[in-house]
Write a structure and sequence with these properties.
The complex is a heterodimer. By secondary structure, chain A is mostly helical. Chain A has one domain. Helix content of chain A is 70%, strand content 0%. The N and C termini of chain A lie far apart (64 Å). By secondary structure, chain B is an alpha/beta fold. Chain B folds into 2 domains: 160 residues, D-Maltodextrin-Binding Protein, domain 2 (3-Layer(aba) Sandwich), CATH 3.40.190; 128 residues, Periplasmic binding protein-like II (D-Maltodextrin-Binding Protein, domain 2). Chain B is 42% helix and 20% strand. Chain B is built from 11 helices and 10 strands. In chain B, strands 1, 2, 3, 4, 5, 6, 7, 8, 9 and 10 form a 10-stranded mixed β-sheet that branches. Chain B starts with a helix and ends with a helix. The chains are: A mainly alpha, B alpha/beta. At the A-B interface, helix 2, helix 3, helix 12 and helix 17 of A face helix 1, helix 2, helix 3, helix 7 and helix 8 of B.
Chain lengths: 504, 330
């Protein structure tokens, strides 16, 4: 406890508060802009570490990290343009909420959910950092593969009303994910070196969501009467709070462990959270049309995972994300080696960082909550101008992801694909799920089988894997029992796309 | 509707974003006749934060601070482990304001991607730094020395799982293949598992998922100091300071292998231009700031220019090509 108080003393000096504030603002800006992720922002700011103290630098970097996780939700909700792969899910319900005049609520539930998740995550860090040592490294490829299978299993629930359309979309996503040479074999690269690294998830998401939507709107602008987006209430109502608090906590429960696992990441928990909320919601019919639970849960999940990432970084010196590895480089440039001995050798730094995370979180809430109604007004811009703006940001984001003009070509192609999907009523979520989960699952499977030299039994050789498969078995059994009993399983929401097809 | 307020919000948003765009470094004018004030472009073949990026930015910073030349415009040309950047360099034939950071991994990537933009077509300028590879095992691994590993590997080539932090054609992949070849194990039999960088590789080693890891040692210092990972040998000419392990040659394996990084210019530049670029890098190498940059980043100095670097490049290119062709990757 004394150490923690010392930590707050370190973090609360005016200088460090200023760095936390700069970090949070910069992180939010970076998160808002698709393409520039926190990893790139940190890398570009690395030279700063030559001129400020180590505690200030690391406090600023943590602020950028948390801010980036939060900022990604703003453009997802307002412009349907996710800035990071971890906020792709937020766009699904968030943007629908925004269109029905509930942008302020979506932004607020994201902000408060991020705060709740980030704070709980940080408290868990306080508790776990001194204790957890080598537990996380015992998980190998078989366990991760099992978790990926579970995630795939969970997202079949979000396939939408037409299973056929859902699967078409999922397989389109998996096909896009195949592009590249990650396995040593060139697949679908057509001999083009630009495609060798595969297609960036941000480019896919921005192309399918933002460009596809802009084209769709442009194609219908004249035919349909102009919809006026209602202004709506500026703040969350009592019902919104009631519907949000459980998803926040469940999202945190998904996000933190995934962040702490070396190959967990921030995307899988957002999928799992979304699927769970849809299953548990009292308003499953609202999913696909703007359910607040679908924003609250995934947003909490991705922030909690950001906190979780710091656990292996601080305890083992293990960076589990690109952002964390750059933070590691920054710390190392001061001659400090994170790892098991860090807590003993640099207690001031570690506890200062942990204290500043709470401060960064509070700053984010204070800055972003009052902004929510203000941001929501952006949607009042007349549609031609609004979509011009969306196209501008989408293009900028796709370009800055890799600074490659080739990505702009991809963006247009994917945008046309997005338009076609809307035309034929294909839901877009399964495609994104395929793009993100496909390669991750393949990587773990290849690694597991390569290590076992082709022995398939390796896949259930780890306890975690066995537990995950057992859970899946139980879920299948429960579903089967439900079907036999003739109980009508809750029908997943019809997607707006399908509806529009009918209306036309 | 409050159009004015909307506009204010938009302006604020744009202002915030342009700030970000500025920090990410945007293009500018180039070229000036005064050589001390000219703008140079520097291509970096991977994303910010990577090895080439750190090397390139450190070098550019020293040259700017010591006013050896004007400002640098640094561009990360990302794609196919450097192949895309090499292609761009080839396309810029004759451009007299451009350099590119590259190294062993780029030489390999050009082959695995079947590109014609090979290093030998470019103008060699200088080799800057090198990093030794280390052979890492978990603390309670049965292998106590390199010879234990060599014996086990020869006995059951496919039974030893070797992890590395790079993909096919990268330094961590080339090293075990050349090592296997040296000790008489067919590279095609090596069970190489590619991890996405040092972090995941550390995890796999600590969790004893693989038998042995091969990588530069910078990212493993904490685990080595803690005694959780042991270094069987290092791959360079001389022992590595602070690491209690013999070189391969000392241990009786006849192989010297380092992961090096250097600078190339486009093909077809004039001799004066080549001398100018070599000159500023040589001056940069002699500064105190560069010494500090080497120390901070844990890089070993291995500077070479002119004929020495040219011959080295030819030799490396042939060696990499041999290894990868044998494996069927090139």
């Amino acid at each position: 406890m004394d150490l923690l108080l010392d930590g707050f003393q370190t973090a609360l000096t005016p200088e460090n508060l200023l760095f936390a504030l700069i970090g949070v603002l910069l992180g939010t800006a970076v998160g808002v802009l698709p393409g520039i992720g926190p990893a790139m922002a940190l890398a570009l700011l690395l030279p700063v570490t030559y001129s400020v103290g180590v505690d200030s630098a690391i406090i600023m970097f943590a602020g950028i990290y948390y801010g980036g996780m939060y900022g990604g939700s703003t453009t997802s909700i307002l412009l349907n343009t996710p800035g990071e792969s971890s906020s792709v899910i937020t766009a699904i319900e968030g943007n629908k909420m925004a269109k029905s005049g509930r942008a302020a609520q979506a932004l607020a539930t994201a902000a408060i959910g991020s705060f709740v998740a980030g704070t709980i995550g940080t408290v868990l860090l306080w508790i776990l950092v001194p204790r957890v040592a080598d537990v996380v490294v015992t998980l190998g490829a078989p366990s991760y593969f099992a978790v990926m299978v579970l995630a795939f299993f969970a997202v079949t629930m979000v396939l939408g009303s037409s299973k056929l359309r859902g699967f078409i979309s999922l397989f389109l996503g998996l096909a896009i994910a195949l592009v590249g040479t990650s396995t040593g074999q060139a697949r679908l690269t057509f001999g083009n070196a630009q495609l060798a690294d595969g297609i960036d998830v941000v480019v896919v998401a921005v192309g399918i969501f933002a460009i596809g939507e802009a084209l769709w709107v442009a194609a219908h602008l004249r035919r349909k009467p102009l919809e006026i987006i209602p202004v709506g209430q500026p703040w969350m109502s009592r019902a919104d709070w009631k519907r949000s608090w459980k998803p926040w906590l469940r999202g945190t429960a998904f996000g933190f462990p995934f962040g702490a696992l070396p190959a967990g990441g921030a995307e899988v928990p957002t999928f799992l959270s979304y699927a769970t909320e849809q299953k548990l919601s009292k308003h499953p019919e609202e999913f696909g049309k703007g359910a607040i639970e679908g924003v609250a849960g995934p947003e909490a999940a991705n922030n909690a995972s950001a906190a979780g990432t710091l656990l292996p970084l601080l305890t083992l010196g293990l960076p589990t994300t690109a952002t964390a590895s750059i933070m590691l480089v920054a710390v190392q440039s001061y001659g400090i080696q994170p790892g098991p001995q860090l807590l003993d050798s640099e207690p001031k730094l570690v506890w200062g960082l942990l204290a500043s995370l709470v401060i960064a979180n509070a700053l984010l809430l204070v800055i972003n909550l009052p902004m929510a109604p203000l941001w929501a007004r952006l949607l009042q811009i007349p549609r031609p101008q609004l979509y011009a703006g969306i196209l501008f940001f989408a293009t900028l984001g796709a370009y800055t992801a890799n600074f490659a003009a080739f990505d702009l070509l991809l963006l247009v192609v994917l945008g046309l694909l997005g338009l076609a999907m809307r035309r034929f009523g294909l839901p877009v979520l399964p495609l994104i799920v395929g793009v993100i989960l496909g390669p991750a699952m393949e990587l773990q499977l290849t690694q597991a089988l390569q290590i076992s030299q082709g022995d398939v039994s390796t896949l259930w050789s780890e306890p975690v894997a066995v537990v995950v498969y057992a859970v899946m078995g139980l879920m299948l059994l429960a579903m089967a029992v439900g079907v036999v009993r003739g109980k009508k399983s809750p029908v997943p929401a019809t997607t707006e796309d399908a509806e529009e097809l009918v209306n036309r | 509707m409050h159009p004015r307020r909307t506009r204010t919000a938009l302006v604020a948003l744009l202002a915030a974003l342009s700030l970000v765009a500025l920090t990410s470094g945007c293009g500018v004018t180039r070229g000036s006749d005064d050589p001390d004030n000219r703008r140079l472009r520097l291509f970096i073949p991977n994303s910010p934060g990577g090895g080439y990026d750190l090397t390139g930015r450190a070098a550019a910073r020293v040259m700017e601070d010591d006013e050896l030349t004007g400002r640098f415009e640094i561009r990360n040309v990302v794609g196919a482990s450097g192949t895309v950047a090499m292609q761009r360099l080839l396309n810029e034939e004759g451009s007299d304001d451009l350099m590119m950071v590259m190294g062993l991994g780029v030489v390999g990537a050009v082959y695995t991607n079947h590109s014609d933009a090979t290093p030998l077509k470019m103008t060699p300028i200088a080799r800057l730094v090198e990093e030794q590879e280390g052979i890492l095992v978990p603390a309670d691994s049965p292998f106590r020395t390199v010879n234990d590993l060599v014996a086990a590997w020869k006995k059951d080539p496919g039974g030893i799982t070797v992890g590395g932090g790079s993909g096919n054609g990268g330094p961590d992949h080339l090293f075990p293949m050349q090592l296997a070849d040296t000790i008489g194990v067919a590279p095609t039999d090596v069970n190489y598992i590619s991890y996405d960088g040092g972090g995941p590789l550390t995890t796999a080693l600590l969790g004893e998922k693989i038998d042995v890891g091969m990588s530069g040692l910078g990212e493993f210092e904490a685990q080595i100091d803690e005694g959780k990972l042991r270094v069987l040998a290092v791959s360079g000419d001389e022992r590595l300071e602070g690491i209690d392990a013999p070189t391969l040659t000392e241990a009786g394996v006849d192989l010297v292998f380092t992961n090096w990084r250097g600078v190339l210019a486009p093909p077809g530049i004039s001799d004066e231009q080549r001398d100018y670029l070599t000159g500023i890098l040589t001056e940069m190498h002699d500064t105190e700031e560069w010494r500090e940059a080497l120390a901070t980043n844990g890089w070993s100095d291995n500077f070479a220019t002119g004929k020495e670097f040219e011959d080295f490049l030819v030799e490396q290119d042939a060696r990499v090509a041999d290894t990868l062709k044998e494996l069927g990757f090139a």
